[in-house]
Specification:
Elements (H helix, E strand, L loop, with lengths): L1 H13 L1 E3 L5 E4 H7 L5 H17 L9 E10 L2 E10 L1 H9 L6 H35 L8
Antiparallel strand pairs: 1-2, 2-4, 3-4
Length: 146
C-alpha cells in the first residue's frame, strides 16, 4: 500500500508541466492512464462532469479545463487532430472526484491532490493571519480578543 502511494505521487508529479508563467498544469491525456482509464470516451465523460461541477461552484471555467488540440500520428504517414485539456491541480481534483472510486489509485490520487490543495489554502490563510497580527502589533493593539 505504501509503495503504491509513493508510486502514485511520483507518477502524478512526473506528468506535471510548468508553463512560461511558472504555473503548473497536467494534460488530461497523460492523466487518463494514471487514473486507469483505457477509453478517452469514458474519461471525457468524467471530465464533463468535473467541468459542470466547476461551473456550479461559481468558478470561471475559462480559467480551468483549457482545451488544447494536438496532432498525433495514426500510421501510414497520416495524422489526426485530438482534443486534450490543460488541467490545474484543482481540475485534477474535480476529475478524480467524479472518477470510479473503487479503484485504489483513484483514492490515493484524490488524497494526494486534496492534501496539496489544502496545504496551499492553509499556507495562504496562515500568511494572512500573520499579517493581521503584525498590523495589530504595529498599532500597539492587544492580540487577545476582548
Amino acid at each position: 500500500m505504501n509503495e503504491l502511494k509513493e508510486c502514485t505521487e511520483k507518477m502524478f508529479e512526473d506528468i506535471k508541466h510548468i508553463d512560461e508563467e511558472e504555473k503548473e498544469y497536467w494534460l488530461a491525456r497523460k492523466l487518463m492512464p494514471l487514473l486507469e482509464y483505457t477509453l478517452w470516451q469514458r474519461f471525457s465523460s468524467t471530465i464533463k462532469k468535473a467541468i459542470e461541477n466547476c461551473k456550479n461552484s461559481n468558478n470561471n471555467v475559462m480559467d480551468h479545463f483549457i482545451g488544447t488540440d494536438k496532432m498525433v500520428s495514426i500510421g501510414s504517414n497520416t495524422t489526426r487532430n485530438i482534443i486534450d485539456y490543460k488541467l490545474t491541480r484543482y481540475d485534477c481534483y474535480l476529475i478524480v472526484m467524479f472518477s470510479n472510486s473503487n479503484k485504489e489509485v483513484i483514492e490515493l490520487v484524490w488524497i494526494y491532490v486534496e492534501i496539496k490543495i489544502s496545504f496551499k489554502c492553509h499556507k495562504t490563510t496562515l500568511f494572512l493571519g500573520f499579517v493581521f497580527y503584525y498590523i495589530k502589533l504595529k498599532k500597539g493593539e492587544s492580540l487577545w480578543m476582548n
